[in-house]
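Q: Can someone sanity-check these two? First one:
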Amino acid sequence: QHGHIRNTNSAKEVWDNLEKQHQKKTLTTKVQLLKRICDMEYHDGDNIEEHLMEFEDLFEKLANAGSKLDEDLQVVLVFRSLPSSFDALTTTLENRADDELTLQLVKGKIINEVLKRREPSAVDSVVLKADEKKKSVGCFFCEKPGHKKKNCILWQRQKKEEGASSSEASGHREQTKVSKKQAKAKLAKSESEAFTFLASECATKEWIVDSGASSHMCANRKYFVSLSEPRQDTPKSVTVADGKRAVVKGVGSCKFSCVGGGGDEKQISLSEVLFVPELDMNLVSVGRLVQKGARVIFDKNGCTIANGDRIAAVA
């Protein structure tokens, strides 16, 4: 620093020169730190603890340089560094009250989410799953378990096509003309492809798959097989379609039935469902499914949900 005080005539000039030089260095440091913070990115599979620790270190260095960031801005910058696979989590956290959204809370939720993803996945761990447990009841027409002949879609379609009478006895005489190999071939095809929840054959038409929903939500108490008071990490309210806030009354698990394209009745189970009585429709969150490792595919035939190579459901 000797060069900065050379040719000065007073102590004040010395101080002023040193102060200017220090301010330049401090500004450069702030710019560099902010650039590093804004460039921070987390990729699935990285060490999340190291990622968050680096954020803390940069925030502290910036504060020491004279520019301490507000906590809400720190939270925003952490959210910004996460990939799209965390969208459901960030949306849920954003719905919390501002005074509850602390950096420590956010860090804890992010770490918990990463730890959940590291657990071994299984079909039962997918939030939306088809209950395919073998049942003692079997269909005499397609010879598949899980439903009776009178509820078999293949039987009903065949009965309608051949103009059979409404009685099952008469229908049975008509169906003997049909090759069981043909019925099995149709069923095998439906099992090798995604089974379809036909809108006209679904036990309830009140559930829709929503790519914008941050959580599974249900307005009807009758679909809950278990329901408890909102937990500490449960959002107190959610934003509905008209922009208003709807109160979350509880959280639990829901179950409803749909008929697959192969004629089987499927029990659909949802966990971590928010009980929001003010909703007009019950929502299945795409974000929650993806968060659990499921693949969600929309096409002209509907929406397919799969876990790995196995189809979990189609709506």
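And here is the second, same format, sequence then tokens:
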Amino acid sequence: MSSGGSERARRWVGSFGTRINAFWALLFVGTLVVLTFAADWATRRALEAQDRDAVVEELRAHGDSFASGGLDALRERLTTRSDARISLVRVRADENRTLLRLGPGAAPSDGTLDALAPSPTVHVVSTQTHRWTVAVQRVGDDHVMQVALSDAWRDQTLWELRRVFAVVLVVALLLGLLGGFWIMRRALRPVRALADTATRVVEAGDFSARVARGGTGDELDQLAAAFNRMLESNERLVQGMRDALDHVAHDLRTPLTRLRSGAEVALRSGDEPTHAEALADAIDESDRVLTMLRTLTDISEAETGLMKLDRQRVDLAAIAREVIDLYAYVAEDAGLALAADLDEGVIAWGDAVRIRQALANLVDNAIKYSRADTEVRIEVRAEADRAVVRVRDEGPGIPEDALPRVFERLYRADASRTHRGLGLGLSFVRAIAEAHGGEVSATSVEGRGSTFTLALPTPA
């Protein structure tokens, strides 16, 4: 056999399916053997009980015939109505003389029967060739009748049954092995598909691979569904990392290029004001890079549960007014109006500083993307068991295909990046919302604006 063939054989022998099938076969065969021995033992006991009942019944019937009609009546009954299995019927007088001995088969010797006590009992007598079931009963005042049945017919019956058991055992073993192999192949098919898919992902880097589901809804089908969800999550994470690296490279390139350009200008110029301006620009660009890195760190802490929150009762209307005051001049410079529709007494349970940061990011985002001479509206509502803040703008809206991704890190629906920003604000809002046990969502109509909704838990 070739090395490849021997390797496949070793893998097949050592495979999980082969081991399970071998275990199933051993268990199946062991169970059949135990059942066969139990059936043989039970059959033997049942046949022995039948033999005892038969000799007792024959003894009583022959005894009645002898008592009513003597030896002639007994002979007539033996030739017409006696059980064919009975091997011996013998009548003795009190002086131990044999008056009648009839039987179709070989019988125990007289000496053996002479040793039996003349009482109405059943005995098992062994000879060199057979074992006999013998019933003895006194008939009348001076006679003893003995009826004997050989085990030859019982042994023949057991032999035939054992042959049947052997055939059934072999057939059941073959069917069990084939059935076990077939069932195991079907049962392990989803596992093999899962292993093949995992191999494609690891070796080929194909994160789009998925395990085909059978739709049965059983445990293996649920495993395949969970594995597919994991692959989808990994695919999104890998794609997100690729996009994030691209975006970070793009966003860091601009401030670093400015830093380098400013430094080069300062080096070429001996003018102190130029040096001061270059240093100021360097500080601004450094702050921008540090802000990006700090925001990324905050998002990671929030998503991993490491963000420390000083939870307390937070008045959302008061927080909203603070943010409106903070952005009033920014909105005015952009030609926008900030409108407020705040329900009083809406209390959230969370960290006031972080909630203020989240709302500020939403308002900043709305101002950044709104058209001039439009309105940005901030609403505070109590809805069910949530404290809700909504920020509505009248900007160009978000494309439908971009809407599901607006909360991803470093993602911008504005692919041209004409608006200055880090692409982290909305991702930071989502991280803060989820750290509080809340959620943030967005709806948008292109050409008419967008609405961002921040829902936070209320005090218990």
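A (reply): Looked at the second one. The longest strand covers residues 131-139. The two ends are 73 Å apart (CA to CA).
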